[in-house]
Amino acid sequence: MPEIYELEPELPKPDLPGHVVVQPTEGDVADAIAADLYLHALNCVRAHGDFHMALPSGVSPLKLYTTLMIDPAYREMPWKRTHLWIVSGQANDSGAEDAILETIVQHGDIPSGQFHPMNAGSPNADTRYTKALTEHLGWREKGHDRLDYVLLGVGADGSTAGYKAPGPPPNRDDDLVHLHGSGDDATLSLSMRLINASRFVAIVATGKHKQPGIKQVTGRDSGSLPLSQINPIGGVLKWYLDEAACPPAGPSKGPPKGKTP
Predict the structure, then answer these.
(1) Is residue 186 within 8 Å of 179, Cβ to Cβ?
(2) For 224, which of 32, 137, 167, 250 could close a Cys bridge (C-beta 3.0–4.6 Å)?
(3) So what CATH class is 19-245?
C-alpha cells in the first residue's frame, strides 16, 4: 500500500492587515523572511540595477541577519548592488547599528558608500539623511524612486519604527524622515510616507514578549497605533510571526480588518 502522509494543520493566524505568515519557531521565521527578501532583491536588481532596503536596529531581526550570512541558499544575495538604510535611530544609542554593520555590511562586503547609518545624535541628522535618500533614490526613474524593502519590528505598545503609541506626529507630505524628541532623547525615523511608499514592508515579531504588541494591533482601538498606520500604497505588507508571538485565540473584538491585496 502507498504510504499516507498527513498534512500538518496550518497554524492559527492573528487578524492582521495584509498577508500573515506564522511559523513554529524563530528560526523558521528567519528562513521565511530570508526566502522572500532574497527573491525580491534579485527582482529589484534586474529591474532597477540596485536594491534599496531599510532595516531596524533592534534585536528582533538578529536571527534573520545571521541566516542571510551563513545559509548557502542566500550566497547570491546581491549585496554589492544593495543600499542599506536604517529605519530609526536614537541619539543616546550610538551602538544600535553596530549589529547591522558587523553582521551584514562587513560580512556581505557591501561597499562603504552604500551603507547609510543614521547617526541620530549627530548635528542636523534629519537634514543629512533626507539629502542622502534624495540623492540615491533620485537616480531612478520617476515613480520608482522609493525604497524596495522595509523591515519593521513590533513594540509591546503597538509602536514601530521609533514611533510610540498612541501614534506618530503627522508627517508633511514631502517628509522623508521625522525627528521627534530632542537632545539625548531624540529619535530619527523614516517617515510614514516613505515607509508606506515601499514596494515591500515586512513586519517581524518573535517570542512571547511580542504578544502584547500583536494583541494591540488586533484590538478594537488599534487605529491610533503606529503599527496600524503601516499600509503600503501599491506595495506588499507581510507579517512574519512565530507561534509564541501570537496571542491566544479568543472572541472577535471588532469587525474583520481589510486585507491588502
Answers:
(1) yes
(2) 167
(3) alpha beta
